[in-house]
């Protein structure tokens, strides 16, 4: 029966079949493994990690690679649409230290336990502008709960727009390369414009633009993939936020460098497994206050391992589930994800 | 002592700004759902209006076969008028005649310009007065696979909208100058299931953006400030710039008085994702009778935003001079008097409720050419009785107000009581089936006000009112259906002097805003709405 379906789908080689399965499986792989941008605190690091799921990640890379089995280019064909839904839950728990030291004396010391639950429902839409050029947008809807402080927040996250360009047609057996750029807006609730003791943020608070490249190579039945990107985070000015006894007026989040790599393995026609690691370096973040003082959060690294399982639930639908583990302090303790394509008749690519 | 008066006035201004949030919330509730609903007095729970079944009864989606889309537009004209007059028995604040000193006395306020809350921008006044303001009201689609009992629908619509803007010199600017309250539902995945020939059920989740923005000029027609003005006269502040009692007491840093502006309040709060859910049921035991009911959950929201107060030079100058004197400095330390800073600003968070709503009704085709609909609506406005506001820093006016109302105010928080009560409304509609393609409609909805007696004000200027509507439904072609309506509403209220401590009390202890102290207020609101929606297949 599987073979019959296989033929109906027009895939005559085992490789093609495995590829199609893995394509959707990796949708959930790269979620929430991203650049830590400001490093101002563990909290903000988490913001950064959780919000940039729009970055070119392993899912897009693999999707591109496997589509290339049938097409010259691995991106969406010109004029085609695709709509995807994904859900991600992540948990972070720790002890936060708030310390102010002036002339060697501790002026302010506060240790706060924290337990934050993040639920993100996101919708991403892609449109094939040309065969080798795809533009897409991602709209996250974020719900957060801090069970220690009994705070919660619901809000639209940072909406982002991504362009992916594949300069050369894909030749089976060779490495495929895609260049991408992402513009992230600050539509979410900014962490710099809230009452930090009573509210939670749902966005980064600044605009950022990222550019990078992703590569992949098929070694049947395994696909290797990797990517690297650089993100510039725009300085935010004219803030007016209470931070202890001072007012925060400006935040310069610095830049972010991130890379990821991993592999996918097809266990059968209906099941495939993936594993990837993402490492992110964040430049120091500078906070400027109304009294002329500055505070700099040192640069830091964060890392996360993600595993996902792709399951075919119908001829046209593959559902992905994933689980991730933070490797460093700035990353979530763990995350669980789910993603699937949305196919409303005539709206989505099948 | 005057400090508590100042704090009280400012506290009152904040109160009014937020009171308007709730008052409008009811006033505009379900005012504009769909041309069919407007024409039938909103009595459509058992006869859901096209794809806006998403909003009035999700079970009604089952009636939409195949794949359909719908889009609606409205042209609206709303006029908010108010008249402030000196009562026959006269009016004075600490011996100062209102008629002589109050520029608002015996004048009229009129707001016809609209205002909007634009996400990312904030409160935006529409550019100029237009005969009608046009806007899209809703858009959506539904998909029912052939032979399936399931129907999926999704849409976007303006759940609540109210907004107006007054001129800079309008006498009504002391009770909300510009305001926009809106709740926009942008994503509403909904599923309906046809259980059998008689029963349908439906449920959906609504994702909404909820926002409120307001500006208001502040003044203090209060006996305490009247005392201050009288003392300034006695000191001869107008003629001589010298302080006669300096350095012990200085009062001439700026002119104050009961009808002197003290500043401008600006407030903007929003929540970009406010989830709620709805479900509904339809029962059609015969081909001429339908019963329907729907419930929408409302939401407990955490809105966040900013509040700013720009004080006038006179006001801040006055307090600076008071604080520069010996007695003033001592008084300030004891009573947390204002220091005279020109501007205060804070990030705020507040807990607010979008009320739950229940409606049930019937639709009966009593004659082959006539269908009668009736509905009863319940809105849980009592859930908005309190509003809790938290500030991220200590504000001067809160420090001052705390002395007067310690149980409601801390230096960084406010808990306000709004005079709210639950609301029941009745709606009736008649549909005349002129031909197989044309239906004519007429209806009325009796809408009750949620503000209790004694809490009337101009911030949410809609009171008990009847919403009248007429309209038609026309099968343009086999695939396309058009609904149109014209509806109108008039609401008026007399608020005699000293009858509402939300607008015109003149006693010394009232804690709520009363910028029109001692004046009779007559307010009238007109709304005319023309709407059209087109539904077709795709």
Automatic annotation (TrEMBL), chain A:
> Out of the domains of life, which is the source?
Bacteria
Q: Which residues form the signal peptide?
A: 1-35
Record keywords: Signal
Q: What is this protein called?
A: Outer membrane beta-barrel porin/alpha-amylase
Q: Could you tell me which species this protein originates from?
A: Halospina denitrificans
UniProtKB/TrEMBL annotation, chain B:
Bilayer topology annotation: Multi-pass membrane protein
Any one Pfam family match given in the protein's UniProt record, by short name: Toluene_X
Where does the record place it?
Cell outer membrane
Q: Which GO terms describe its molecular function?
A: long-chain fatty acid transporting porin activity
The record's annotation in Gene3D superfamilies points to:
Outer membrane protein transport protein (OMPP1/FadL/TodX)
**What InterPro entries does its record include?**
OMPP1/FadL/TodX
Annotated keywords? Cell outer membrane, Membrane, Signal, Transmembrane, Transmembrane beta strand
The answer to whether UniProt assigns keyword Signal to this entry is: yes
GO CC annotation, single:
cell outer membrane
Family per UniProt? Belongs to the OmpP1/FadL family.
| Protein name as annotated | Long-subunit fatty acid transport protein
Taxonomic classification, please? Bacteria, Pseudomonadati, Pseudomonadota, Gammaproteobacteria, Halospina
């Amino acid at each position: 029966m599987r073979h019959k379906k296989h033929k109906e789908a027009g895939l005559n080689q085992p490789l093609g079949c495995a590829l199609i399965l893995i394509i959707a499986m990796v949708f959930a792989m790269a979620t929430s493994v991203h650049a830590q941008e400001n490093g101002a605190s563990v909290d903000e690091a988490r913001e950064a990690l959780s919000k940039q799921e729009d970055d070119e990640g392993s899912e897009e890379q693999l999707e591109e690679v496997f589509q290339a089995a049938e097409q010259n280019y691995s991106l969406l064909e010109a004029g085609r649409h695709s709509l995807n839904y994904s859900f991600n839950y992540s948990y972070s728990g720790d002890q936060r230290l708030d310390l102010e030291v002036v002339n060697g004396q501790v002026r302010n010391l506060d240790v706060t336990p924290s337990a934050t639950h993040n639920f993100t429902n996101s919708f991403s839409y892609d449109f094939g502008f040309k065969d080798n050029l795809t533009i897409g947008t991602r709209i996250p809807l974020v719900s957060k709960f801090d069970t220690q402080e009994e705070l919660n927040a619901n809000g639209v996250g940072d909406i982002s727009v991504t362009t992916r360009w594949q300069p050369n047609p894909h030749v089976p057996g060779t490495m495929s390369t895609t260049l991408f750029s992402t513009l992230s807006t600050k539509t979410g609730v900014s962490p710099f414009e809230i009452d930090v003791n009573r509210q939670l943020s749902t966005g980064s608070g600044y605009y950022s633009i990222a550019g990078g490249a992703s590569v992949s190579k098929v070694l049947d039945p395994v696909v290797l993939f990797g990517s690297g990107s650089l993100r510039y985070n725009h300085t935010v000015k004219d803030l007016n936020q209470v931070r202890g006894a001072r007012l925060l007026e400006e935040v310069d989040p610095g830049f972010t460098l991130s890379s990821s790599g991993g592999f996918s393995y097809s266990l059968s026609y209906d099941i495939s497994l993936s594993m990837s690691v993402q490492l992110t370096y964040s430049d120091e973040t500078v906070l400027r206050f109304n009294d002329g003082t500055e505070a700099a959060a040192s640069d830091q690294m964060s890392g996360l391992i993600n595993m996902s399982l792709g399951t075919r639930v119908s001829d046209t639908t593959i559902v992905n589930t994933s689980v991730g583990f933070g490797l460093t302090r700035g990353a979530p303790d763990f995350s669980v994800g789910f993603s699937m394509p949305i196919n409303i008749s005539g709206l989505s690519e099948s | 002592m005057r400090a508590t008066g100042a704090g009280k006035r400012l506290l009152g201004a904040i109160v009014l700004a937020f009171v308007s949030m709730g008052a409008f919330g009811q006033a505009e509730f379900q005012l504009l759902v769909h041309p069919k609903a407007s024409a039938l007095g909103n009595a459509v729970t058992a006869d859901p209006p096209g794809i806006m079944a998403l909003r009035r009864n999700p079970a009604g989606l089952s009636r939409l076969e195949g794949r359909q889309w719908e889009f609606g537009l409205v042209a609206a004209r709303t006029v908010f008028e108010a008249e402030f007059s000196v009562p026959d028995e006269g009016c004075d604040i600490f011996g100062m005649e209102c008629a002589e000193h109050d520029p608002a006395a015996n004048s009229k306020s009129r707001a016809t310009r609209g205002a909007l809350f634009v996400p990312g921008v904030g409160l935006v006044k529409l550019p100029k007065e237009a005969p009608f303001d046009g806007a899209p009201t809703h858009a959506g689609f539904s998909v029912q696979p052939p032979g399936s009992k399931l129907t999926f629908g999704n849409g976007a619509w303006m759940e609540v909208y109210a907004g107006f803007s007054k001129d800079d010199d309008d006498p009504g600017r002391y009770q909300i100058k510009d305001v926009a309250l809106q709740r926009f539902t942008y994503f509403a995945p909904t599923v309906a299931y046809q259980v059998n020939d008689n029963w349908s059920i439906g449920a959906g989740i609504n994702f909404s953006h909820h926002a409120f923005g307001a500006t208001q000029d502040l003044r203090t027609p209060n006996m305490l400030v009247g005392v201050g003005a009288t003392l300034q006269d006695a000191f001869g502040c107008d003629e001589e710039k010298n302080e006669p009692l300096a350095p012990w007491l200085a009062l001439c840093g700026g002119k104050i008085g009961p009808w002197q502006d003290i500043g401008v309040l600006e407030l903007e709060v929003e929540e970009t994702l406010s989830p709620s859910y709805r479900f509904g049921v339809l029962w059609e035991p015969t081909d001429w009778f339908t019963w329907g009911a729907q419930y929408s959950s409302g939401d407990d929201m955490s809105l966040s935003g900013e509040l700013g107060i720009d004080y006038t030079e006179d006001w801040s100058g006055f307090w600076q001079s008071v604080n520069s004197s010996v007695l003033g400095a001592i008084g300030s330390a004891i009573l947390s008097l204002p220091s005279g800073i020109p501007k205060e600003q804070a990030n705020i968070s507040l807990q607010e409720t979008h009320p739950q709503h229940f409606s049930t009704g019937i639709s009966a085709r009593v004659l082959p050419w006539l269908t009668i609909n009736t509905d009863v609506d319940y809105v849980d406005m009592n859930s908005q009785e309190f509003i809790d506001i938290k500030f991220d820093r200590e504000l001067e006016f809160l420090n001052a107000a705390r002395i007067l109302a310690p149980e409601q105010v801390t230096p960084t928080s406010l808990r306000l009581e709004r005079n709210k009560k639950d609301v029941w409304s009745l709606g009736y509609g008649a549909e005349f089936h002129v031909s197989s393609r044309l239906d004519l409609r007429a209806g009325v909805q009796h809408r009750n006000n949620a503000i209790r007696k004694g809490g009337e004000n101009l911030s949410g200027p809609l009171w008990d009112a009847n919403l009248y509507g007429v309209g038609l439904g026309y099968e343009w072609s086999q695939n396309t259906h058009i609904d149109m309506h014209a509806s109108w509403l008039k609401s008026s209220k007399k608020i005699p002097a000293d009858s509402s401590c939300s607008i015109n009390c003149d006693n010394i202890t009232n804690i709520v805003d009363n910028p029109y102290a001692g004046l009779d207020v007559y307010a009238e609101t007109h709304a005319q709405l023309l709407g059209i929606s087109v539904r077709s297949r795709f």
